[in-house]
Amino acid sequence: MSLQGKRFLIAKPGLDGHDVGAKVIALALRDAGADVIYTGLRKSPDYIAQVAVDEDVDVLGLSILSGSHIALVEQTLACLAALNAQDIKIMVGGIIPPEDREPLRALGVVGVFTDENTLDDMIQTIDRVLAQ
Amino acid sequence: MTNPATPGALDRRALARRLTQALEASAHQSLASFGKARHGYTPRIGITGAPGAGKSTLIDQLALRRIERYDPVTGRMAVLAIDPSSPLSRGSILGDRIRMAKVAGDPRFYIRSVPSRRSQDGLCDNVADLLLVLEGYRFDEILLETVGVGQAEYAVRNQVDTVVLIIPPNAGDTVQAMKAGIVEIADIIVINKSDLPEADKTRLELSAIVERHRYYAADWQPMVLMVSALGGTGIDALHDAIDAHQTWVRRTKSADQVRRERARHHVESLLERSLRTHISNAEADLFEQSMSDAFQTLAKRLAADANQANNG
After folding, report:
1. How far is Cα A9 from Cα A60, in angstroms, rounded to an integer?
2. I want to staple B46 with a disulfide (CB 3.0 to 4.6 A). Which of A55, B112, B156, B196 is the partner?
3. Structure pTM?
4. Which is nearest to A66 in space by CA: A40, A35, A97, A36?
5. Residue range B43-63: average pLDDT?
6. Cβ-defined contact of B13 to A4 (cutoff 8 Å)
7. Residue B20 touches partner A, C-beta closer than 8 Å
8. Pair A126, A91: CB distance under 8 Å
9. In this predicted model, what pLDDT tens digit does every residue of B69-97 receive, in sequence order?
10. Of B16, B24, B89, which is closest to A31 when you measure between CB atoms?
11. Do residues B47 and B164 make contact, with C-beta atoms less than 8 angstroms apart?
12. Are strands B109-115 and B77-83 parallel, antiparallel or unpaired?
């Protein structure tokens, strides 16, 4: 299993200022062979969508701990649609209550990861999603 | 290759995808896409230096200053930023963009992060192809940021007109060690973090080294400048020095000469890539033959490639 040649953008939308998790994920993806771009903290959905387009990523991973994951995902999807880039896959990681996971998937999020997942689980799931 | 650009509008999605294709292309695929393309004359500026010297932060300030030279409506600049690939996993963390906060969200700039992949010369695989793609999109200027380099990774010299070498102020003995190396190919040497106390000593040491190079340099005398990328001081002087060097390049070389040089280095890299592929795909017993037989076999395979490229 390898994510070699796959491009990821790990982004921190909104106001939460903690990116230890985002960096752990970025490193795990790198160790699985992926090329990983990180935006840095507190970026707006339209900035994130533009970077995803400019960097031609396969996957946009949003790290959200603030609780506003539904709104931020909706906004980011709208921004991607405005750039004609709906094909970029979106995944979400962070503090996501169980009852919000289905609604996120219904919006089009193809992976939701929380502290219940190990890094190996996550990489395997991503590998599977990208193989589809 | 048809020219994909219409003046004014930049299709960032299409450009981004073409760059990904170019990044992943084999020598065959590159020849199929660019084999008949003509090289451009777009100014190319390379920014190189050790890890942590401040390359990305400096580009952030410099790009913002240099865009003022160009048309306020149609002016645009590209930044190609290379970060190292892991030799273990082949993956990479591409983090240069984080330090380019001033230009990263500005539509006049297109920033693309690329991994070095197998390249160990401070650049990335297929860099000549990437630059050619960017030229096709009519940027006014292209900035190329190398991987953080040591003393002898100066392949950037062959890909750009102007080489800016960034040195941190505490380079100390490293500067001495660099005497015969990257310092010799720089057109402009920047001592970054010039507010730190060791900066002036480093400037004196470098000025002495540059002085010695006057024996070799025909015309252009490398400049040594003090800059604080984070504080934004010395950026105007660097901007002017780049203009002066660009003027010198364009005075001493015709457009055709620049194009010829770019084409030459591009062909060189295509041949190297093709040969490297043949060597990695070679049957194990090829190297049990005499070296001259192995050489001949590989040369024939390379020649077969050439025929295919010209007919294809």
Report:
1. 5
2. B156
3. 0.92
4. A97
5. 95
6. no
7. yes
8. yes
9. 999 989 999 999 999 999 999 999 998 99
10. B89
11. yes
12. parallel
